[in-house]
Design goal:
The strands form three sheets. Strands 1, 2, 3, 4, 5, 8, 10 and 11 form an eight-stranded mixed beta sheet that branches. The protein has a four-stranded antiparallel beta sheet with strand order 6-7-12-9, with no helix packed on it. A two-stranded antiparallel ribbon has the order 13-14. It folds into three domains: 181 residues, no CATH class; 42 residues, no CATH class; 80 residues. It has 311 residues and is of the alpha+beta class. α4 runs antiparallel to α6.
């Protein structure tokens, strides 16, 4: 796959974390990589580089990368379990340009929990890929960094333990784990449309968060959301009703005594009001209590009909 940038981190048991990044270079051309399960060739990192020049550049960056010890609240041990928390903010992203983050857990570490969330929205969880690298005896956590805002922020929290004996038989999977090149079914359409068309779809469908056994999941409504009424559409409807009533009044005025015209006019006005109230109720702009009150006030005006008829 053609990738724009990668961010690599490697954690050791003493809490030291190697961190570095690699971007596609203009003089080297496009950076093509493959996931570790695609080739049997020897590799030095979480990706196979299809170009030897990029592989050499990767090894050079890795040799000179930062190797800092995490703070005690970012990496610690409790009851034979190890906890790590790392955060990355303002990762630049562009549409049609892939950026990946990859974290190597310590050697023979078996993950018990891996959760990647938005830095500023803790209930927004991201999908991840988790691969057991038997060559390095490490688990690798992959995250595709994508955002329509142009920057990507995330916080990774993981819990793991040391188990040399069972490492080679262990797999990790949870409801936010996906396979390589796999996309959730509800996200496939995003990658088939231009960006402006994606925005139109988001305006048509509303995102919502639902809770499933205490866990937040992002889904999409399958029904069209309530839209604001177009005043031209609503206006045309009431204009049509008004013209229709005036036409009927004009016809009736030639066939009934003039003293009945006030009754007909008042009845027509009340009918238009009732139609308007029903439209508001249909659009959920009027709750049941307000609708009942409005209908009551309308029917209180009915004595006007009797008064007009008695004249």
């Amino acid at each position: 796959m053609n990738i724009h940038a990668i961010i690599i981190e490697q954690l050791e048991w003493d809490g030291r974390l190697k961190s570095f990044s690699l971007q596609a270079q203009r003089d080297l051309g496009e950076m093509w990589v493959a996931f570790p399960n695609e080739y049997q060739n020897e590799r030095t990192g979480p990706f196979h580089f299809l170009d030897s020049e990029y592989e050499n550049l990767f090894e050079h960056r890795k040799a000179k990368c930062r190797n800092a010890k995490l703070a005690s609240d970012k990496f610690y041990e409790k009851d034979n379990q190890f906890y790590i928390s790392t955060t990355w903010n303002e990762i630049p992203t562009k549409r049609h340009q892939l950026t990946f983050y990859a974290l190597y857990l310590p050697e023979y570490a078996i993950p018990d929990k891996i959760e990647i969330s938005d830095t500023y929205l803790s209930n927004k969880l991201f999908n991840k890929m988790v691969y057991r690298d038997s060559d390095k005896n490490r688990f690798i956590v992959y995250l595709e960094c994508k955002s329509s805002a142009g920057v990507f922020n995330f916080k990774l929290d993981a819990i793991f333990h040391l188990d040399r004996a069972n490492f080679s038989q262990t797999q990790f999977n949870d409801n936010k784990t996906i396979g390589f090149y796999e996309r959730p079914l509800d996200e496939h359409w995003r990658y088939l449309l231009p960006e402006e068309e994606v925005n139109k779809v988001f305006n048509f469908f509303a995102e919502q968060l639902v809770i499933n056994n205490g866990e937040f999941k992002q889904t999409y409504k399958t029904q069209m959301t309530t839209q604001k009424n177009n005043p031209w559409i609503s206006g045309s409807f009431y204009l049509f009703v008004g013209v229709l009533i005036l036409t009927i009044l004009a016809v009736i005025s030639n066939n009934v005594h003039w003293t009945l015209l006030p009754v007909i006019i008042i009845g027509g006005i009340l009918i238009i009001g009732i139609i308007g109230a029903l439209q508001l109720k249909n659009d959920d702009k009027l709750n049941d209590e307000s609708f009942i009150k409005l209908m009551s006030e309308t029917y209180k005006k009915l004595p006007l009909l009797r008064q007009g008829k008695s004249k």
